[in-house]
């Protein structure tokens, strides 16, 4: 290989390595849609297809397009090791976390590229080409399932609006998270459909549930309501937090109000005029609501609450 070509190859390899590091470790924030976030997550597949190609080139620079099976296997193993290493590093990086799903998508990207690359200008039996191409297609489809589920749920959410949450499908659960506890769909205390959300809140500073991807546009509605069934014999104080996409993470730039649940059935009503006027020095952007959070502060003992039928309502 001529010296100039070798230098150019090394420079290109270094540049692409830096770009990959940027894409893996930079925090691009949350988008306005779960579907878009899942599409961004799917970017791990083409990203590690590039990683696998670069690894294959590094192992056999002279003949990487025609490398043997052993070299392809080594490239796959090294790519998988890098996928694991990047997630371990992210575990110790602020605002990032270790994600098994990302490793799976990384490995799929590497496997798909290497199976396709191995067939390049190589004499292979037809059945073997079909098997390798079919495997690559199945892997790509498997990696795309979370994005497809999120898209289907987004269509369903638009159809059900102004119903925000009823926990009738598994896909809807992707819009919810729980802090310091466990939750699941159950057939108990449902007030909308057949399912409710059972939230088991342990003692802690801020145990609660969060809806990260509600339908954004709340203009024209007067109240947010939901039902909550509280187990046990004593009351429970819960805070409802709502903020928009402009939220600056300061406590005076969002809606925070405390409600006291009594044992048994509770119907909580949030006045959206109060929500709109809650931020200090500005109005809440009711066209771009980004989060609903319901939590307890300094909870002393475990409590179980069943939530259902989150919806927007109009007066009259």
What does this protein structure show overall?
The protein has 316 residues and is α+β, with helices and mostly antiparallel strands. It has helices at 3-25, 34-42, 44-59, 69-91, 100-118, 126-160, 272-276, and strands at residues 163-165, 176-179, 182-186, 196-201, 208-211, 223-230, 236-244, 255-261, 264-271, 289-295, 303-313. α3 (44-59) packs across α5 (100-118) and α4 (69-91) runs antiparallel to α5 (100-118). The longest helix is centred in the middle third of the chain and has 35 residues, at 126-160. It is elongated, with a radius of gyration of 25 Å.
Helix count equals 7
Radius of gyration, in Å, reads: 25 Å
* Class from secondary-structure proportions: alpha+beta
State the end-to-end distance.
Answer: 79 Å
Spell out the helices and strands N to C.
Answer: HHHHHHEEEEEEEEEHEE
Number of strands: 11
**Low-pLDDT ranges:** none
Main sheet record: 6 strands, antiparallel
Shape by Cα distribution: elongated
Q: How helical, in percent, are the residues? A: 40-55%
Beta-strand proportion = 15-25%
Mean of pLDDT:
86
Task: Tell me the layout of helices and strands.
Blueprint: H1 3-25, H2 34-42, H3 44-59, H4 69-91, H5 100-118, H6 126-160, E1 163-165, E2 176-179, E3 182-186, E4 196-201, E5 208-211, E6 223-230, E7 236-244, E8 255-261, E9 264-271, H7 272-276, E10 289-295, E11 303-313
Antiparallel strand pairs: 1-11, 2-5, 3-4, 4-11, 5-10, 6-9, 6-11, 7-8, 7-10
Helix pairs in contact: 1-3, 2-6, 3-4, 3-5, 4-5, 5-6
Main attributes?
about 325 residues; alpha+beta; 6-stranded antiparallel β-sheet; 5-stranded antiparallel β-sheet; elongated
